[in-house]
């Protein structure tokens, strides 16, 4: 695992290039580590239908899930309870997606396949796979909330979801799995406040738009800009009751651990403490990785461990469960390795500074974001 970056990444604006030269090691000299009691085993949701979403040589391909499964099997699934994901119920899906959109996906699959947009494909097995991908995220949320404080889990399916909007598929995504799950938590499970942290390198425009007018979901996205889909500017903050509950943290190309970890620690965590969510969900894309072919960021394996540790410990601090829903990641070796590291970190039981976050300086983009958000979240600076 490569060490966390440090030094010369700062001082750039989103959309410009920065450098990522110096390095500093993870985990130096942290203090005594506390352990938290796990209410039950960590859970891993999956379904074989993910292998039936046949996209050929497309970057979002079957090999992604095969690589993840092989890596987890080699580690005996890290002690996670393995659960076969149910198909999402139609009524649950329709809380987020229109009947017309669902029927378009159904018809395309029944016809043997179709290209829904320049990037998004449907095969004969895609509709069933998408139902189980959304159903897995919903089942994850149900298990997390049943387990309570300390419960963690991971939902790993294809197709991913965070680009899908209410009326259409886009960006490799058919249904917005994490949005369906979050809305189910709010509508059916008595949750008033859900935090969604999206660290996929592409802006989660679908999740952004679905909860644009809601204060029951705080959506925070760290993503490269400029990059597909072109949304996610810092000025996009939501509307009406949702104003201020959409927080976009765009980063420039070549951003690495120093940027992503600082934004998580110095912006996401203070916002979360102020918001006090009852559930923390992560749109876990791994395409900000330094080896990913579809973007230009430089997050290392260690960077994903650090972000996971921060959000795991946030859940422990607030006494709420934490779960991941798989999004992107197109270098299959890096993807599989980082999913294993994420799950290992989530389920480790550590609740202390692991690794030592003092090694990462506050990034200028974090300072700018806190100043920008201060009028909307007056106590956010005191929550650091």
Helices, strands, pairings?
Blueprint: E1 43-46, H1 62-74, E2 81-84, H2 90-93, H3 99-110, E3 113-115, E4 121-123, H4 126-147, E5 152-155, H5 177-188, E6 194-198, H6 205-210, E7 217-224, E8 246-251, H7 257-275, E9 279-284, H8 301-318, E10 322-326, H9 332-346, H10 364-373
Parallel strand pairs: 1-2, 1-5, 5-10, 6-7, 6-9, 7-8, 9-10
Antiparallel strand pairs: 3-4
Helix pairs in contact: 1-9, 4-5, 7-8, 7-10, 8-9
Written account of the structure:
The structure is a single chain. The protein is of the alpha/beta class and 384 residues long. The protein has a single domain (43-377), classed as 3-Layer(aba) Sandwich (Arginase, Chain A), CATH 3.40.800.20. The protein is 34% helix and 12% strand. Helix 8 links the parallel strand 9 (279-284) and strand 10 (322-326). The longest helix has 22 residues, at 126-147. Mean pLDDT is 90; it is low at 5-38.
Concise structural overview:
The chain is an alpha/beta fold and 384 residues long. It contains ten helices and ten strands.
Helical run tally: 10
Helical/strand content category: alpha/beta
> Can you say what the CATH homologous superfamily is?
Histone deacetylase domain
Low-confidence stretches: 5-38
Share of helical residues? 25-40%
The tally of structural domains comes to 1
With strands numbered from the N-terminus, the spatial order across the biggest sheet is: 2-1-5-10-9-6-7-8
Largest sheet at a glance? 8 strands, parallel
- Terminal CA distance reads 28 Å
Per CATH, which architecture?
3-Layer(aba) Sandwich
Shape call: globular
CATH class: Alpha Beta
- Determine Rg (CA atoms, Å): 19 Å
Q: What is the string of helix and strand elements?
A: EHEHHEEHEHEHEEHEHEHH
């Amino acid at each position: 695992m490569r060490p966390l970056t440090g030094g010369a990444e700062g001082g750039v604006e989103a959309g410009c290039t920065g450098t990522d030269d110096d390095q500093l090691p993870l985990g130096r000299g942290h203090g005594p580590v506390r352990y938290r009691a796990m209410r039950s085993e960590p859970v891993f949701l999956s379904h074989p239908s993910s292998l039936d979403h046949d996209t050929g040589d497309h970057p979002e391909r079957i090999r992604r899930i095969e690589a993840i499964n092989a890596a987890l099997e080699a580690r005996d699934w890290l002690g996670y309870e393995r659960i076969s994901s149910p198909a999402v119920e139609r009524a649950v899906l329709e809380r987020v997606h229109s009947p017309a959109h669902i029927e378009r996906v159904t018809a395309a699959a029944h016809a043997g396949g179709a290209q829904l947009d320049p990037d998004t494909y449907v095969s004969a097995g895609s509709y069933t796979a998408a139902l189980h991908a959304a159903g897995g995220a919903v089942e994850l949320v149900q298990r997390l909330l049943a387990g309570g404080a300390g419960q963690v889990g991971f939902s790993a399916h294809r197709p991913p979801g965070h680009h899908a909007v209410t009326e259409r598929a886009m960006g490799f995504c058919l249904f917005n799995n994490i949005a369906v799950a979050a809305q189910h938590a709010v509508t059916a499970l008595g949750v008033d406040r859900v935090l969604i942290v999206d660290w996929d390198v592409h802006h989660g425009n679908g999740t952004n738009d679905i909860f644009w007018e809601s204060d029951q979901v705080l959506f925070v996205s760290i993503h490269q800009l400029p990059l597909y889909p072109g949304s996610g500017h810092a000025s996009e903050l939501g509307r009406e009751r949702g104003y201020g509950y959409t927080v976009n943290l765009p980063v420039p190309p070549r951003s690495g651990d120093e940027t992503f970890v600082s934004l998580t620690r110095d912006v996401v965590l203070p916002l979360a403490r102020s918001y006090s969510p009852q559930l923390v969900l992560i749109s876990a894309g791994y395409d900000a990785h330094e080896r990913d072919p579809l973007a230009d960021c430089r997050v290392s394996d260690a960077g994903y461990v650090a972000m996971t540790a921060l959000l795991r410990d946030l859940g422990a601090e607030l006494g709420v469960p934490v779960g991941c829903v798989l999004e992107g990641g197109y270098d299959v070796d890096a993807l599989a390795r980082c999913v294993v590291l994420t799950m290992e970190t989530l389920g480790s039981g550590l609740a202390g500074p692991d690794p030592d976050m003092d090694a990462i300086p506050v990034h200028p983009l974090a300072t700018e974001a806190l100043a920008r958000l201060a009028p909307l979240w007056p106590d956010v600076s005191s929550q650091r």
